[in-house]
UniProtKB/TrEMBL annotation:
Function: Has an important function as a repair enzyme for proteins that have been inactivated by oxidation. Catalyzes the reversible oxidation-reduction of methionine sulfoxide in proteins to methionine.
A molecular-function term among this protein's GO annotations: peptide-methionine (S)-S-oxide reductase activity
Name of this chain's protein: Peptide methionine sulfoxide reductase MsrA
Catalytic activity, as annotated: L-methionyl-[protein] + [thioredoxin]-disulfide + H2O = L-methionyl-(S)-S-oxide-[protein] + [thioredoxin]-dithiol; [thioredoxin]-disulfide + L-methionine + H2O = L-methionine (S)-S-oxide + [thioredoxin]-dithiol
EC number(s) on file: 1.8.4.11
Gene3D superfamilies registered for this protein in UniProt: Peptide methionine sulphoxide reductase MsrA
Length: 225
């Protein structure tokens, strides 16, 4: 099994900047939106889906959007039992959900196993209920699986990472059967792309994306280099 040796560990920087500050952000205006090809729900149905949680979904969405074969990434909530969760509820730990992403991908270009490498290579899976400056169970590390094959792929990769002693601490990522994904409010979608000067984006999200790009160049789309 190929092991991604250049693991991106998110430093604990600028603790005064956190993902929870997002509740104060206002919905985007039409002039703030950047151009992006939007695929219809019908068009997306032909692609496979994968689900991950690894901290602020702004960061995670941006990472997966840069990966070849990924057609769309949606920010949302998963891992809990509550119906129709809102950002205010999830961000302040009032549900069992974590901030998560739904990844639509072309399996002819990139495999689920490779997406698992992207997941582990773009965050620190050894920190309990924490990612960078963000703390709380809503920012925990979760790799969701929809079938036995996906579960095996995740567990095999974790085993390989541990065998190679890639991390100095135990991997505590939850490996969870996927149940339901709830799409986040519209202003959270493509937030990093549409708000490059927002304080959290500049201090945490963009640096995290750039570290991933530097270490996983072979995984990137042509326009993401």
């Amino acid at each position: 099994m190929k092991i991604a040796r250049n693991i991106v560990l998110v430093p604990l920087i600028m603790l005064f900047v956190s993902c929870q500050a997002k509740v104060k952000d206002k919905p985007l205006t039409e002039n703030q939106l950047t151009e992006k090809t939007i695929l219809s729900a019908e068009a997306l149905q032909k692609y496979d889906t994968a689900y991950f949680a690894s901290g602020c979904f702004w960061c995670v969405e941006a990472v997966f959007e840069s990966v070849k074969g990924v057609k769309e990434v949606v920010s949302g909530y998963s891992g809990g039992k509550e119906q129709n969760p809102t950002y205010e509820q999830v961000a302040y730990g009032r549900t069992g959900h974590a901030e998560a992403v739904e990844v639509f991908y072309d399996s002819k270009i990139i495999s689920f196993e490779e997406l698992v490498q992207v997941f582990f290579g773009s965050h620190d899976p050894t920190t309990y209920n924490r990612q960078g400056p963000d703390r709380g169970a809503q920012y925990r590390s979760i790799a969701f699986f929809k079938n036995n094959s996906e579960e095996k792929a995740i567990r095999n990769y974790i085993e390989a990472l541990e065998k190679e002693m890639v991390y100095d601490a135990p991997i505590i990522t939850q490996v969870v059967a996927f149940e339901k994904f709830w799409k986040a409010e519209e202003y959270h979608q493509d937030f990093e792309r549409n708000n490059p000067n927002q304080s959290y984006v500049r201090a945490v999200s963009v640096p995290r994306l750039n570290r991933f790009k530097a270490n996983f160049k072979s995984f990137l789309k042509e326009d993401s280099h």
